[in-house]
Amino acid sequence: MKSDTAITLSNVRLALGSARFSFDGTLPGGQITAVVGPSGSGKSTLLNLVAGFEKPDAGRILIGAEDVTAWHPSQRPVSLVFQDNNLFAHLDLASNVGLGISPSLRLSASEKVAVDEALQRVGLEGFGKRLPATLSGGERQRAAFARALVRRKPVLLLDEPFAALDPELRVAMRALLKELHAETGNTVLIVTHDPDEVQRTADHVLTLRHGEIVATGAVDWS
């Protein structure tokens, strides 16, 4: 089922040092939208605004019908996978993934099963007791993706999540993203520099230049 959690940036303005960003538009709910554009165009900034890590100087951000502009990141119906996998070095993988369910790590038996299933789905079955330092960069990124899976939020933000993976694994993770999207109908924003990733993964594309949205539209799969 498609989600109704469209993301609306209504006359959003933000200044970060000398950089100026101006976003105005609506991203469709229940679709995978690729966010593309040259370096410095505002792709990660746009995701940070939706996630709540940046607060706009003006304008409003809506997720579905809710104005979330003033909401803390923890209050937003959003899961994140950024280039920096943000795993805690002193926690094993099962605990790192479990943080997506409960920051206290007081998990029920069914929640622990959900953690194991998420690790299995990203190809890390049996890795639950491993520490991040014992893993490759690609394995750490897959663990971060597993943590997003267990959160089951209606909006998923991905900032070049597969860039560190080898080509074969990148294809497998794209397929998993599509599979999970088909199951949940969630709203996905994925920042990418890979035209093939846009063509094979996204339903919709958003193009940024110089801190502004310059084009939006459906991906042509023909």
Please explain how this structure is put together.
The protein is an alpha/beta fold and 222 residues long. It folds into two domains: 1-77 and 153-222, P-loop containing nucleotide triphosphate hydrolases (Rossmann fold); 87-152. Helices cover 31% and strands 27% of the residues. The protein is built from six helices and ten strands; from the N terminus they run βββαβββαααβαβαββ. It has helices at residues 43-51, 93-98, 109-121, 137-151, 167-184, 195-201; strands at residues 7-16, 19-27, 32-36, 58-63, 66-67, 78-81, 155-159, 187-191, 204-209, 212-218. The strands form two sheets. It has a six-stranded mixed sheet, sandwiched between helices. β9 (204-209) and β10 (212-218) form a beta hairpin. The longest helix has 18 residues, at 167-184. It is globular, with a radius of gyration of 17 Å. The protein starts with 6 loop residues before the first strand and ends with a strand. The mean pLDDT is 88.
